[in-house]
Amino acid sequence: MDDYKDVESSGELKQHSATDSDTHPKLYVVVAFLTGAIASIGAQYIFCTPQSGVNTVSVPQRSIEVFAPPYAGSSEVHHFPPASPTNVFPSLFPTDVGHAGPTPTGAEAGLIATAPSYPVHSGAPHLVSPASMNKGDKHKSSNFDIFKHWGNLSPWFSVERGAFGLDSGPEVPETCSITGLHLVHRHGARYPTQFASFGGPANFSGRLNQAAAGWKAHGDLKFMNEWTYKLGEEVLTPFGRQQLFDLGVATRIKYGFLLKNFSESNTLPVFRTESQDRMLASALNFAIGFFGYPFEGQYQQSITIEEKGFNNTLAPYKTCNNADDKAKSDRAIWYVRRWADIYLKDAHARLAPQLKGYDLSIEDIYTLQQMCAYETVAIGYSKFCELFTEDEWKGFDYSLDLYFWYDSAFGSPVARVQGIGYVQELVARLTHTPIAVHNSSTNATLNDNPVTFPLGQSLYVDATHEVVVLNILTALNLTTLAAEGPLPADHIPKHRTFKVSHLAPFATNVHFQVLACDSVAEPQIRVIVNDGAVPLTGIKGCPAHKDGLCPVSTFVDAMREMIRDTDWAWGCHGAWSVPEGTQWNTTVGYPPLPQ
Ligand SMILES: *[C@@H]1O[C@H](CO)[C@@H](O)[C@H](O)[C@H]1NC(C)=O
Ligand SMILES: *[C@@H]1O[C@H](CO)[C@@H](O)[C@H](O)[C@H]1NC(C)=O
Ligand SMILES: *[C@@H]1O[C@H](CO)[C@@H](O)[C@H](O)[C@H]1NC(C)=O
Ligand SMILES: *[C@@H]1O[C@H](CO)[C@@H](O)[C@H](O)[C@H]1NC(C)=O
Ligand SMILES: *[C@@H]1O[C@H](CO)[C@@H](O)[C@H](O)[C@H]1NC(C)=O
Ligand SMILES: *[C@@H]1O[C@H](CO)[C@@H](O)[C@H](O)[C@H]1NC(C)=O
Ligand SMILES: *[C@@H]1O[C@H](CO)[C@@H](O)[C@H](O)[C@H]1NC(C)=O
Description:
The protein has 20 helices and 10 strands. It has helices spanning 4-9, 26-29, 35-46, 61-67, 111-114, 201-210, 238-255, 260-265, 277-291, 321-324, 326-343, 345-351, 362-379, 390-408, 415-431, 444-447, 466-475, 500-503, 552-564, 568-573, and strands at 176-186, 216-217, 270-274, 300-304, 355-356, 459-464, 509-517, 524-529, 532-534, 550-551.
């Protein structure tokens, strides 16, 4: 599979590819205090810097590595940008020539409060869905949307009203107004990650290449005779870039009025992301969408280090040894294997005979489904999507629910410990009180400094990975999302609220809205995941409210209890183990307690 373990998740692989620390000058890594630093980051991504001389600027070294990953899988690679372009004369292309014309700005937007309805995000402009689908299904529904059946590889979309069990939308409930927003989002669509624990497009294409002379495809697979594998690794795709830009724009239109708070306190917002290439690129694309170009001088971007051994609430697996444990991921894979054997049986029988001279395994067939998703979000269309039936896409979607349930969410022994660091930060922000004890993934150097971790602001934006989003939802004790209990490997349960395509797709976004309401004296909080309101009734003391409101003080008390009852030392470093298979389950994302 893909993200999984490493990349998105844990990280034994850290040294791989050009995406990590080697690509970012240390200078930028901690926190850009100076707007100048932000300016140069932006410039790195967007423009040639005007000061540099001929041949020295323009193309930062990193881009070259990024576009030509050195691995066996790609059968086609384009080297753009060229390493030494001959026409680079920065002095002839100044970035500031003056004469901008009038530049008055208007008032901030507040669509979340001012519009009669909410703009639905239906997903994926620029991407093309299959021209035809395998007609194997008996019951085909005309409105089947393949993009919504790729688990964590789906582009984010507004979930249906009621998806999480509340008949309420993200609009501000009547008689309330929003006073704060804590936004956590995932990076946008990316190429496959280097780590693949089941399936894996690059490895598959590498094997096909090696065996190139020996096989020939027929029938539905005939296109593979001319097909080349064009995907890179790890970094954002152009569409992924757009997702974050769009999310930034949408957030400004909905919540722009929250910026008044910063003008009043004479401060700039601080947004956080990690050093990994796609994380930084996602955050900066969000910023361009939210602030517009040029964004320098409008906010400060904290870029925390995502690397083994560094305390980082947005990359907690880097210090949580038990989360790095292969056994944990194997447990999740155990379920996926069993389920794939079932739901891909027919597809295997249908497709394997169409590739002569190469034995396609069930795992390979699974990879063809991944290929569909990855190619679509990277190059806009994939012929592989046409190969499967609607039911097989539902099966694929569920395979990812299984994986993430057991690897990163309520069914994982290390989900809650990994999410608790962010919960501690959320409590600090909600109560305007610094974190008292650093005994999880929190980072005292950053968290105890009011400049790098400000309290008492109206807007917070944090970028992270899907596994961490799921860790956080688990640590918040949002157990209504886990109502169906441990997911079975042999069938798709009829009713389930735990769907990874709903909770952790590309550019997934979780809004913690803080509200003031006429009807109640106390400030309220609610949680909106991809435009769906989540019931907070799993959280101790939170009432069954039709819009999912809970008093902030009640919410905070429950979170403090969660923090008390979550032992990082035990969860991440304790000598517990859990068996593979169905012999042991958790539905609260916590390991067996010490005997
Ligand atoms: C694919 O993965 C297998 C198992 O990890 C490995 O032995 C093989 O070398 C890989 N092949 C390619 C082409 O990457
Ligand atoms: C805290 O974060 C800073 C900046 O990313 C980093 O330099 C430092 O090493 C981190 N501290 C720990 C204990 O990991
Ligand atoms: C890093 O995390 C460990 C484990 O929770 C903690 O003991 C240590 O104090 C933290 N360091 C900093 C600088 O936050
Ligand atoms: C900014 O917003 C925060 C959170 O709502 C609030 O506590 C603070 O008083 C506001 N500051 C100003 C100057 O309005
Ligand atoms: C764990 O959950 C699975 C899937 O629902 C179930 O089959 C199994 O019986 C459960 N195991 C235990 C020990 O409860
Ligand atoms: C967390 O959820 C569990 C299971 O639903 C519940 O028993 C417990 O009271 C909750 N704890 C808090 C602090 O919300
Ligand atoms: C941190 O320490 C406090 C106080 O000793 C303890 O109650 C809590 O469980 C610990 N939290 C974590 C996340 O380990």
